[in-house]
Amino acid sequence: MVRIMDRIGVGKILLSSLAGLHSDFAWGNDDVHKAAKQFPDRIFGYIFVNPNYSHGVADEIERSRKLGGFKGICTFGYGFYSYKGKKYVPCWELSAKYDLPILADSWGDNAVNDLGEIAKQHPNAKIILAHSGPEDFYKNIEVAKNNDNVFIEISVSKDGFSVVELFVKHLGAEKVLFGSDFSFLALSHQLGKVLYAKISDSDKEKILSGNAKRLFKF
Amino acid sequence: MNLTDKLEFFDCNCMIGRTGVLNREVIHTSEQFLQEMDYAGIKSAIVWHAMSRDCDAVKGNEILLDEIGVSKRLYPMFTLVPEHTDEFGSIGNVLAEMKKYGVRAVRMFPLKHGFSISDWNSKNILNALEENKIPLFINIDQVEWTGVNDLLSHHKKLNVVVTTTRYNTDRFVYPLFEKYENLYFETCWYAINMGIENIVKRFGPKRLLFGTNMPEFSPGISLAHVIYSDLSFEEKKLIAGDNLRGLLCLNQES
After folding, report:
1. How confident is the model at residue A109 (pLDDT cuts 50, 70, 90)?
2. What is the CA radius of gyration of chain A?
3. Where would I find the H helices in A39-105?
4. Chain B residues within an 8 Å CB radius of A197
5. What's the complex ipTM?
6. Which pTM value belongs to this model?
């Protein structure tokens, strides 16, 4: 991954684990910790939480923080467990307590609206709507616009025409974060949507790095 | 001359014309397309018309020719259906029409237009395309990979370009690439990490075609995917446009 980052010109990456999503959250977080330890200036981790397990949220956040190398939390709707469920509450609380922004998968029934409500209930938690656009982008825009602590992340394999321009137009570049889903998707593919977007260079700089530096305190 | 210009991008997958169903307004005229191409650095594109898919293939093809006029940068692609319901008259008629207007490629929508791409249904039209060296473009959502295999197995000299394939297709595509030299693959949604590089490593650079899927997608992802790929300049240039020029029997000035 770092070789590809070097070739393309990506300095830092915030990483979550596919294994954490699809299989074992703790194994996945351990794997991310190892990567962050190996490349301490290049790779940083998101702590994957899974509310289907009793130790899958608060305990896992504390455990992973102690391991080190993590700068955020990653959540997934898990289809059968709503973001609004009680088991997720420690996630929002600890996010605010430790200033760990949350990268929240925003697809699925009502996920965006639910995250909007959670953002209001937990104004000190920073919530990033992962994989925003091209399907429900007006909903994402509405929620991000109405909540200072909600941001947009744009990695989607299926692009949408002028979606980045629309996000910037409605929200301002400060609310939009570059993401790639690398190393699942190609960095080169996802970078193109920002590099070629019809926005100013300074807006591109914000999306590609400035906003992440600010949110994650680099 | 910058790298984009040197690569001479030729978009093999884009549509002009309004569609009825869309979630926001996007470009649809040839003028808008040329502006977008200018901005992105795309030299040429082969385009089909939305009406030929969504309403009437014959009418859509006519409107396409009117819309692109005598553009030197936009090449027409006709949508065809098998001859059974007589929309085009005879296959000979439609081929003559295509030759008259310089139409060098065809797209088909079996799922949308209610037919099968298998020989029992489409043999005559496919034979005609094969004999006349006219490549067939087909979206993967219109035909499953099994259908692609079936098509290629019966038409080994028909160049088939499968478009808008998703990232999770390697296990389908690799064995097809091994078996059939006449299969090509367009890259707009093939976003898998190192996907393009792995295909080139294993099968060479001539099987991949640059395409944007405009106006559904922005062109930037497809452009950057080629420009930033870990390939040689020559390999990138083939994928960017020279492979398509070869399929369309165009010279290098196109």
Report:
1. low
2. 16
3. 58-67, 89-98
4. 218, 220
5. 0.90
6. 0.93
